[in-house]
């Protein structure tokens, strides 16, 4: 790996860490469904102060006439704008279609945001009209609930935007939405491998089911992944499995992946993603410390024994949760200079410097699944 790439990764990780510590709610956005932040259509629409629907004038290529102002001053003058050939063909052959043009102020040139057929246009109007209510954060409840109702839309572009919006919401907000999608719809989608990159969200939904067939299905998938070393949607399968088997699911996952030294880095990264998401759920006033998080922290002791190279990831979670644990083992790993990635070294050093200030301390022994 080049030094330049490592340096970029280092600063990205620093930014993420400070965001996690200073803004914990935003840091809890689910990393399983949309592991890297992705700007959605709603983001692109709502960042502009002027929006309109427009169509290309007949016999005037690349000249557009406004047909409806969505936001900002009323526009009526023709707009000269380059348009790719595929979009021009869709405008020509799809009835009542339009493009969305946008700009942040009257001093800027118009830009094309997206093509919109007659089904997408009401969807876009709704986003623009409710943008003020959604401005707080991507995890705003009203915004997520609206898009969750579109997860089963027949329109592929609307369905995709619904997935991106719901998939990047905090996990604790995703869980209650599981009831909005039927078991039949979930299994139909999971059987369609054209949408395999979307499977994670629906796997998480399945983890909220109390149906015995769903619990058995999740166990089968989790055990198969562990036995065969599969990593496709692994973080989602393990998260759903642990949710569906609260009695001993976590202990089983720790046994499968942390108790020996032959797991790949890809597997461990996905397991860590699952446990980090589960452990980052918000706690309530009645429950000052989340019990599952305590178990996860104790499970990290086994991970550090067999995979000391994961110390930076462990330190990241402990720092985000402000938990004091595994100090002696992490100090030993730091002194042995096992870590070579500068970002991982920083995470470990940062945690060890901050740990004495954390008030919650976790024991480092995890019960076996048989206890």
Describe this structure in words.
The protein has 371 residues and is α+β, with helices and mostly antiparallel strands. The chain folds into two domains: 3-37 and 169-361; 41-122. It has 18 helices and seven strands. Strands 3-2-1-4-5 form a five-stranded antiparallel β-sheet. Strand 1 (50-56) and strand 2 (63-71) form a beta hairpin. Helix 11 (212-228) crosses helix 12.
Compose a concise summary of this entry.
With 371 residues, the protein is of the alpha+beta class. It has 18 helices and seven strands. It has two domains: 228 residues; 82 residues.
Summary keywords:
371 residues; alpha+beta; two-stranded parallel ribbon; 7 strands; disordered N terminus; disordered C terminus
Helices and strands in order:
Elements: H1 3-22, H2 24-27, H3 41-46, E1 50-56, E2 63-71, E3 79-80, H4 85-93, E4 98-103, E5 111-116, H5 120-134, H6 141-148, H7 156-167, H8 171-174, H9 183-190, H10 199-206, H11 212-228, H12 234-244, H13 249-257, H14 265-279, H15 291-306, H16 311-321, E6 323-324, H17 327-335, H18 342-354, E7 360-361
Parallel strand pairs: 6-7
Antiparallel strand pairs: 1-2, 1-4, 2-3, 4-5
Helix pairs in contact: 1-18, 6-7, 9-10, 10-12, 11-12, 12-14, 13-15, 14-15, 16-18, 17-18
Tally of strands = 7
Helix coverage percent of residues?
40-55%
Q: Unreliable stretches, pLDDT < 50, 5 or more residues?
A: 1-27, 285-289, 364-371
Oligomer: single chain
Figure out the total of helices: 18
What value does the Rg take, in angstroms? Answer: 24 Å
Question: Globular, elongated, flat, extended or rod-shaped: what is the shape?
Answer: elongated
How does the major sheet shape up? 5 strands, antiparallel
From N to C, what is the helix and strand string?
HHHEEEHEEHHHHHHHHHHHHEHHE
Mean pLDDT: 87
* Spatial ordering of strands, largest sheet: 3-2-1-4-5
Total separate domains: 2
Structural classification: alpha+beta
Strand content: 5-15%
How far is it from the N-terminal to the C-terminal residue, by CA?
A: 44 Å
């Amino acid at each position: 790996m080049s030094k330049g790439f490592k340096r970029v990764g280092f600063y990205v990780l620093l930014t993420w860490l400070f965001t996690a510590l200073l803004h914990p709610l935003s840091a809890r956005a689910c990393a399983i469904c949309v592991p890297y932040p992705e700007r959605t259509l709603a983001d692109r629409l709502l960042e502009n102060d002027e929006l309109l629907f427009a169509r290309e004038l007949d016999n005037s290529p690349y000249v557009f006439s406004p047909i409806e102002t969505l936001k900002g001053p009323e526009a009526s003058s023709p707009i000269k704008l380059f348009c790719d050939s595929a979009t021009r063909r869709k405008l020509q052959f799809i009835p009542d279609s339009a493009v969305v043009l946008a700009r942040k102020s009257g001093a800027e040139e118009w830009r094309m945001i997206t093509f919109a057929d007659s089904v997408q246009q009401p969807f876009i109007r709704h986003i623009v009209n409710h943008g003020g209510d959604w401005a707080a954060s991507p995890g705003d409840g009203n915004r997520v609930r609206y898009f969750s109702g579109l997860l089963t839309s027949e329109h592929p572009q609307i369905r995709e935007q619904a997935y991106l919006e719901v998939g990047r919401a905090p996990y604790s907000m995703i869980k209650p939405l599981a009831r909005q999608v039927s078991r039949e719809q979930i299994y139909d989608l999971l059987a369609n491998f054209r949408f395999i990159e979307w499977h994670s969200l629906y796997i998480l939904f399945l983890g909220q089911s109390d149906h015995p067939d769903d619990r058995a299905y999740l166990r089968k998938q989790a055990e198969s992944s562990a036995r065969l070393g599969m990593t496709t949607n692994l973080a989602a399968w393990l998260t759903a499995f642990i949710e569906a088997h609260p009695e001993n699911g976590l202990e089983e996952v720790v046994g499968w992946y942390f108790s020996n030294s032959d797991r790949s880095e890809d597997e461990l990264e996905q397991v860590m993603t699952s446990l980090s998401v589960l452990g980052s759920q918000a706690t309530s006033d009645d429950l000052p410390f989340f019990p599952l998080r305590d178990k996860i922290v104790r499970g990290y002791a086994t991970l550090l024994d067999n995979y000391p190279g994961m110390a930076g990831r462990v330190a990241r979670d402990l720092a985000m949760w402000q938990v004091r644990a595994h100090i002696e083992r992490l100090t030993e790993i730091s002194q042995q200079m096992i870590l070579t990635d500068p970002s991982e070294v920083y995470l470990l050093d940062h945690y060890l410097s901050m740990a004495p200030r954390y008030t919650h301390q976790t024991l480092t022994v995890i019960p076996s699944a048989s206890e």
